[in-house]
Design goal:
Keywords: Membrane, Transmembrane, Transmembrane helix. With 154 residues, the protein is an alpha+beta fold. The chain contains three helices and six strands. Strand 3 and strand 4 form a beta hairpin.
Length: 154
């Protein structure tokens, strides 16, 4: 996943610079490590960072907050820097396949608004604004992932 990787499987024109999200597994992108970047938008370097994962079980992505100290990647101090947003994907086995559970939690938002530049939105306001927007994007992503997973079945 990621704008500079296989895409977000959502609204490609908006999130992926118009480049179509991949419909197939890209082998060169299958090896990941804590600290890897999953770009929110093409060329972005601050969101989303892989903060934890267990292959075949879960992955957690985060966005660093304002008070990032530059702690060593993977340490508890480093993980605590990701208070701006967190996004977790968890897999669980079910009788006829696998279920994907997703949870997103905004901390605060920093938006680039024409004329005003970068505008910081406090946590409580972010928690009002972000969920409806994220719901629309996430639903499209989950439908895209489902379509790809089901078309790959033998």
């Amino acid at each position: 996943m990621g704008a500079d990787r296989a895409g977000w499987y959502s609204y490609d024109r908006l999130e992926n610079g118009g480049r179509k999200s991949s419909d197939t597994v890209i082998e060169s992108l299958q090896t990941i490590a804590v600290g890897n970047l999953f770009s929110a938008l093409p060329g972005a370097t601050d969101a989303f960072i892989l903060t934890a994962f267990e292959p075949g079980e879960f992955m957690a992505l985060g966005v660093r907050g304002r008070d990032a100290t530059g702690a060593a990647v993977g340490t508890e101090a480093w993980r605590k820097e990701f208070d701006r947003a967190n996004w977790t994907f968890t897999l669980s086995a079910i009788a006829d396949g696998t279920r994907l559970h997703v949870r997103a939690r905004p901390g605060f938002l920093v938006l680039r608004i024409p004329v005003f530049g970068l505008v910081s939105v406090s946590g409580w306001v972010a928690r009002l604004i972000a969920p409806p927007v994220h719901f629309v994007m996430q639903r499209r992503q989950l439908n895209g992932l489902r379509r790809r997973a089901e078309s790959a079945r033998p």
